[in-house]
Amino acid sequence: MTQLQRMIDIQPRARVRSMPEYHPPLGNRDNLRLDFNENTLACSPRVKAVLESISATELTRYPERESIESFVAAHLGIRAEQAVLTNGVDEAIHVLCQAFLDAGDEMLLPVPTYSMYQIYASATDATLRTVYAGDDFHFPFAALLAAITSKTKLIAIANPNSPTGSIASREQILEIAEAAPRALVLVDEAYFHFYGQTVINCIGSAPNIVVARTFSKAYGLASLRIGLLAGSETVLKWVRRVLSPYSVNSVALACLIAAIEDQPYLDWYVSEVKKARAEFLMGLARLGMYYWPTEANFVLVSVGAEHREFVDAMRSRGVLVRDRSADPGCDGCVRITIGTCEQMRIALDAIQEFKVAIFKAGDSQ
C-alpha cells in the first residue's frame, strides 16, 4: 500500500462520521426568494454606501471587532462584556456546544426546529435529547420541563421557532432557566424584529440565559455572516476562548454599524413584512390552505401529499419556497418566507394557479 493510499484510509472521529449533514438547496435563486427567511428586498442604502467606500488597503488588515461589539452592546442596552460577535448565529451555536458540552452531558432540543442545533451538538460527546411539539406545534413547555435532569447542560430554544413560527413566552423561558440552574438556556432570537419580545434584558438576573441574535434577517446582511451572543461575562469568557479571533470579517463589521444606525429603514422593512404577513395569511385562508399561526417572517403551510409538486410548481412560476416535510411532524408541510406586500401577492397568485391546476388534473381523472 502506498503512502497516499494509507492517507485516504484516515478516518474522522466516530462522532463526525455519525453527524447528520445539512444540504441547503442550491442552484439558481434569482427568482422571488421565499425559501430562506432572508430579507427579500435589500439591505439599508447606508450599508451599500459603506461597501462602496471600502478601500483595497482596508482589506489587507485583520479585523478588530472589540469596538464594534461595544457599539452593538450599547445599542442593545447591555455591557460590552456581555456581548460577542460571531460569524452568524451558526457559529454562536457551534462555539456554545464546543465550550460547554462534554461526555455525560445532555442537550435538550424541542423539535421541529432549526437543524444546526442537532448538527453541532452531534459533533460533541454529549447526548442529544429531543422533546416533540404536538400537532399544533405549540412550544412543548411542560414536556421540556419534565425532561430536565441533573445531566442537562444546554437547552436550545428558537424564539420564534423555525419552521413553525411558534413562540415560548418570557415566563416560560425564565421558569425553564430556573429549573435548570446547571444548564445554559440558549434563546435564539433570529426573528426577534418580527415578534418584538426578547429576554436579552434577563441575562443579568438569569445568568444561565444566553441570547443569540442575527443580522441576516431583518437587516439583510445574510451574505456577510454576522451574529451575536449576549450572556453573562462568566459564560462569554469561555465562549471567547473557543471562538476564532478573526471569524467576523472587516467588511461585515464596517457594514454592521451602518445597518444598525439606519433605524428608519429597519422599521420600514419590518412594518412592511408584518403588513404583508397579515395579508398573506388572509389570502391563504381564502384559498383553503391550512397554516400554523406565526410570529416570524415566514409561515408553515400544510400542502399534503402534493408538497413536492407544490414546490416545483411554485419554482416554475418564479417563486422559491422550502419543503420541510423531512422535519419531525412536518410531513406535507412547506415553509414560505414573508416578503413585501407586492411579493406576497405574486406568491398568492402562484398558489392559486397551482390549486386550479391540481383541481383540473383531478377532474380530468
How would you portray this structure in words?
- The structure is a single chain.
- It is built from 14 helices and 13 strands.
- By secondary structure, it is of the alpha/beta class.
- The chain folds into 2 domains: 112 residues, Alpha-Beta Complex (Aspartate Aminotransferase, domain 1); 217 residues, Aspartate Aminotransferase, domain 2 (3-Layer(aba) Sandwich), CATH 3.40.640.10.
- The strands form 3 sheets. It has a 7-stranded mixed β-sheet, with helices on both faces. The chain has a 4-stranded antiparallel β-sheet with strand order 9-10-13-12, covered by helices on one side.
- 42% of the residues are buried.
Unreliable spans: none
Radius of gyration: 22 Å
Physical arrangement of strands within the biggest beta sheet: 2-8-7-6-5-3-4
In the CATH scheme, the class of the largest domain would be: Alpha Beta
How many domains? The number is: 2
Distance between the termini: 62 Å
Alpha-beta content class: alpha/beta
Biggest sheet: strands, sense, closure?
Answer: 7 strands, mixed
Name of the CATH homologous superfamily of the largest domain: Type I PLP-dependent aspartate aminotransferase-like (Major domain)
What is the 3D shape? globular
Order of helices and strands: HHEHHEHEHEHEHEHEEHHHEEHEEEH
**Number of helical segments with 4 or more residues:** 14
